From TrEMBL:
GO biological process, one term: methylation
Lineage top rank: taxon: Bacteria
Protein name listed in UniProt: Methyltransferase domain-containing protein
Gene3D superfamilies reported in the protein's UniProt record: Vaccinia Virus protein VP39
């Protein structure tokens, strides 16, 4: 009999179909970013742990330099897939694929790097934050400090008001949309600049609830009917070059339950709250926007003629 967390885990991303993992292999931005970051973070002779290994490709990247890689995967179908794929590749023998729950597994020895890519836009659906926070507590209790380097090292999350078209050949459907970050989207109008609402540093303790209320200055008139959520993953900090290796998730655009008519210069207030790993509808239910101050109603300042 599954407990409540196991039921939720099965529903929210733990058992992603095999073909979805194949699509991730074909995502060149994701693959190149992780390969570069892992090559930088993993030093020769290192011990590496991957939590949520999928096809095993990120563990394989690590195996190019590491002496040993522990690749933990909960989905039995993906365990078989990863073992099959790794057997086809050089250095695959250095990766041990372990069928276990990332919430419970600890390696038999201290590791230098932990790779965890259970990432969804806004840290929704998948268990990235919760898994890493659980791991840090259990690892410190067994091995003490220091903690391993985490990859990604950090995440920056932002939100942006939009005027979004929801006309599909005449059929009006305000749906959740995922958009390529490098493409032009003619049906999307950015109504204000993005605002950062959370920064996650995986080397530090992190909260699991994001509660935010912020303001935007509207840059053009129109109807604000959606909010874009932006998630930038800082895969590795390259301190000697004062730069980072990043991976930007697809934009996630959520329709507002109550659209807002706005004019240039208006001040828009937006608020929401959700739990890391929670469902997209849980965020949508809390998402609210309203005009806090109308630019057209600003009082005219009296300026003396002699000024």
């Amino acid at each position: 009999m599954l407990n409540e967390r196991e039921i939720e885990s099965c529903y929210l991303g733990q058992f992603i179909p095999v073909h979805y993992h194949h699509n991730m292999l074909m995502d060149q931005n994701r693959m190149h970013g992780f390969k570069s970051a892992i090559d930088y973070a993993v030093k020769p002779g290192a011990k590496v742990l991957e939590l949520g290994g999928g096809t095993g490709v990120l563990s394989w990247f690590a195996a190019a330099k590491a002496d040993k890689v522990y690749c933990v995967e909960f989905n039995p179908d993906m365990v078989k897939e990863a073992r099959k794929m790794l057997a086809l590749n050089a250095n695959g023998h250095k990766v041990e694929v372990i069928h276990a729950d990332a919430f419970e597994y600890l390696p038999p020895e201290p590791v230098d790097v932990v790779i965890c890519e259970m990432i969804h836009v806004g840290m929704l659906r998948e268990k990235q934050v919760e898994v890493i926070e659980s791991f840090k507590r259990r690892y410190a209790a067994r091995f003490g400090g220091p903690l391993p380097v985490f990859l990604p090292e950090a995440v920056i999350m932002a939100v942006q008001p939009l005027q979004q078209e929801y006309d599909f050949e005449g059929f009006y459907a305000p749906i959740v949309q995922f958009q390529e970050t490098t493409a032009i989207h003619p049906g999307t109008v950015e109504m204000a600049q993005p605002a950062v609402y959370s920064i996650i540093d995986f080397s530090q303790p992190n909260e699991l609830v994001y509660s935010w209320q912020g303001k935007f200055v509207v840059e053009r008139g129109g109807q604000i009917n959606a909010m874009r959520f932006v998630t930038k993953n800082i895969l590795a900090v390259v301190s000697e070059r004062s730069t980072t290796i990043d991976w930007l998730n697809h934009y996630m655009t959520l329709p507002l339950a109550i659209p807002v008519r706005a004019s240039e210069g208006d001040v828009l207030q937006v608020s929401f709250q959700y739990r890391a790993g929670g469902s997209i509808p849980s965020l949508q239910a809390s998402l609210k926007a309203e005009i806090l101050y109308e630019a057209a109603h600003q009082p005219v300042q009296f300026v003396p003629a002699y000024a």
